[in-house]
Design a protein that fits this description.
Length: about 270
């Protein structure tokens, strides 16, 4: 009976993909199924596929993506990691869609939350896997930023990844086991992390073509990211960051792009 209800609501969504009632009904059905069966793997996979299909023809459908984010609470760690891998292809083809990157951020937070709850019993190899997942996400996002010029969604997502990386891996937040802290590699060194970010910013700050606005937008997004990093950087590394701001003439760049916000940018650069 419940599976038939999913088929019915799927039919409704095929005609009205933004129907709040249809999405709410779908969640009620899944809750009802979870009450009588703990095996939701197939249903969760089909739900994710449904959202992707609907998102293909219904751009920026927040209701569909909110439904997909809601499904994460029913996923196991293995399913979350699998979703991260499978959703990459779709994200690479829709780099201007904030929704798919918000979904990825929720998957990443789910991994971190589960690991924090099991910090005393989690295996060392599991913690290394989490560490690698975050590093891979940073590298993948950097590749997309260079490939697709001027896409704000990619830069916003990078702030999220970097913020989590800094808070959970580069600083002693007290959430990780001592054994894991001792395993931190050179990549976790804040100086090394900062150099990688500055290389990306330097690459994206050069406007090579004034005919199109994408390169100017890319330079502006990289400048905003640099200002954001300034808030996160420890005092001993602040001079290196300020020097980079002078090299790329950040003050001139932001005043030219956003003259009405010059006082705000001056505050952050002081």
């Amino acid at each position: 009976m419940f599976l038939n209800e999913l088929i019915l609501s799927g039919l409704v969504l095929s005609y009205s993909p933004k129907s709040e009632q249809a999405w709410n009904h779908r969640r009620w059905v899944i809750k009802s199924i979870s009450a009588i069966s703990s095996n939701l793997k197939d249903i969760l996979e089909k739900e994710s596929e449904l959202v992707e299909k609907i998102a293909e023809r219904s751009k920026m459908n927040y209701r569909a993506w909110n439904h997909r984010c809601w499904l994460i609470s029913y996923m196991t760690r293995e399913q979350v990691i699998d979703e991260l891998k499978k959703s990459r292809s779709w994200a690479e083809l829709h780099v201007a869609d904030n929704c798919c990157f918000h979904y990825r951020s929720q998957l990443m937070l789910k991994i971190m939350k589960d690991s924090s709850c099991l910090v005393e019993t989690v295996s060392f190899s599991h913690m290394v896997d989490i560490d690698k997942a975050w590093k891979d996400e940073l590298d993948w996002n950097g590749t997309l930023i260079k490939r697709y010029v001027g896409r704000e969604a990619l830069w916003l997502y990078r702030r999220f990844i970097s913020s989590c990386w800094i808070n959970h891996f580069l600083t002693d937040s007290g959430d990780a086991s001592h054994h894991f802290k001792e395993s931190i590699t050179n990549y976790h060194d804040f100086g090394t992390f900062l150099k990688k970010e500055l290389c990306l910013i330097d690459y994206c700050s050069t406007v090579v073509d004034n005919e199109f606005g994408d390169f100017e937008a890319q330079a502006m997004h990289s400048a905003s990211y640099l200002l954001w990093l300034k808030v996160k950087v420890p005092k001993p590394l602040e001079n290196e960051l300020l020097e980079k701001m002078r090299v790329i003439e950040l003050k001139t760049l932001v005043e030219k792009s956003y003259p009405e916000r010059s006082s705000l940018f001056n505050y952050f650069m002081s």
